[in-house]
Amino acid sequence: MPGIILVLGYLLLLPPLLAKTVMKPLFIKMGFVRFFVLVTLIQFMALLPIKMVLRWTINLKYIVFIPEAFFNI
């Protein structure tokens, strides 16, 4: 459950936070849909190095592991 909460928080809370703070001019220029697609793609690209660092430091193999549904992140 903590992994699911972390992943959902990362994917759902970070884009609006960026739209209000750091990337506000880009949000205004691009519009709602294009900005959120861009930020989501950047988040997916950033997940790989994040997962690599977690694997190297604390030997975390999966962030979310649900064997019954064959769902591993």
Q: How much of the sequence is in beta strands?
A: 5-15%
Oligomer: single chain
What's the tally of helices? 3
Please give the alpha-carbon distance between the first and last residues. Answer: 13 Å
Mean pLDDT: 88
Q: What is the β-strand count?
A: 2
Proportion of helical residues: over 70%
Radius of gyration: 15 Å
Structural class: mainly alpha
H and E order = HHHEE
Shape: elongated
The biggest beta sheet is recorded as: 2 strands, antiparallel
Give me the side-by-side strand order of the main sheet: 1-2
Low-confidence stretches: none
Any overview of this molecule?
The chain has helices at residues 2-20, 24-30, 32-58, and strands at residues 65-66, 71-72. It contains 3 helices and 2 strands. It is mainly alpha-helical and 73 residues long. Strand 1 (65-66) and strand 2 (71-72) form a beta hairpin. Helix 1 (2-20) packs across helix 3 (32-58) and helix 2 crosses helix 3 (32-58). The mean pLDDT is 88. A two-stranded antiparallel sheet has the order 1-2. The radius of gyration is 15 Å and the shape is elongated.
